[in-house]
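Open question from group meeting: does this chain pack into something compact, or does most of it stay loose? Before anyone orders reagents, we agreed to write out a predicted structure and look at it together. Recording both the input and the output here so the notebook holds the full record.
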Amino acid sequence: MKRHLALCLLVLTDPALAVSPTELGAFLAGRALPPQSPLAALQESPEYRQHAREYAAQWYRYDDLYFAPMRSWSAAELSPRIGPTSRVTYMFGGPDLVSPLALFPAAQAYALGGLEPVGKLTNPLSLTPEELHASLAMLRKSTEVIMNFSHFITKDMKTELAASHFQGVFPIMLVFLSFTDARIDLAERLTLQRDGTLAPGESSGGQPALRIVFRPAPGMPPAEVVYLQANLADSALVSNAGVLAWLKAQAPATGYLKAASYLMHTGGFTTMRDFLLGHCSAIVQDDSGIPLSVFRDRDWRVIHFGAYTTPLEIFAKYDQPSLRSAYKSDAVFPLPFGFGYRWQRGESTLLVALPPDAAPRALPALPPDY
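Structure tokens returned:
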């Protein structure tokens, strides 16, 4: 308990300036804090008020186009097909915590991973006004793409966050949790050891990681997200088996893949691909995840939502004629939101894949005007 209490607070030299992770997340997200918060006075400046207005506009747009429709669709279409989801494995997702929160709101454990650095939590009270406002602006810019287009561009985000005092995945996840009104009980840096265990703090010889424990809503049980900063290529996993060892301990889970750069269409990411196929009770993804041909070779049942046209021009070589044929010949269900690289509603591809041994479920009945 004492260790957790210390990690839950960002303290300068004065204990009265301790900031809880819930307060920090709200501050970064531009949300009003109670007057007794040490950060409340910082919210009075014209620059901060502008930050709050701009971030609110980002979130309202994302909620309208993505978050709220994804929540409704998940309850009506996804959960009846795959059953309740208690654990989510979202590799290649970077800091995109907000979309699994939308699709799997009742999960109690979210495992995310990617190349993006874990980063750190900086107490805003330690910054000059110029540093604070510049860092908040870079934080907004780093989340602007996902708020507008439902995915991150990793290289751009790494550049933007490098110029900010709110660096890495950590502050972005706090912002997303604050937008969804979660109460954040714990935020801590960890190290993934080679044996697949998580150790508190930062240490050499392992993979940087973080854990956030939060309550999605009053009365709900606590949930946690763990992010692993790790190279998921086959060659990297040979020398760092701790990633797979830790993920295996979390199985079974619902796999989730979005805007995954078609990495598992190449020969360099088969280890993670095969791990997901061997340890997931269902996989929800766009066309950039696991190829349709692989699902068919393993006798997985695939349910199609949305539409399939072509990949973006930079990914043109990963076009899947078999997937296009499936969208023409098989049953295809509507998708009321944009998803993945083809973020425009009506052009997005979403696949729900179920392993051969999955128990058949009754499909939800669509209303006549759906």
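Observations to bring back to the group:
Residues 2-284 form one domain.
The CA atoms of residues 103 and 134 lie 33 Å apart.
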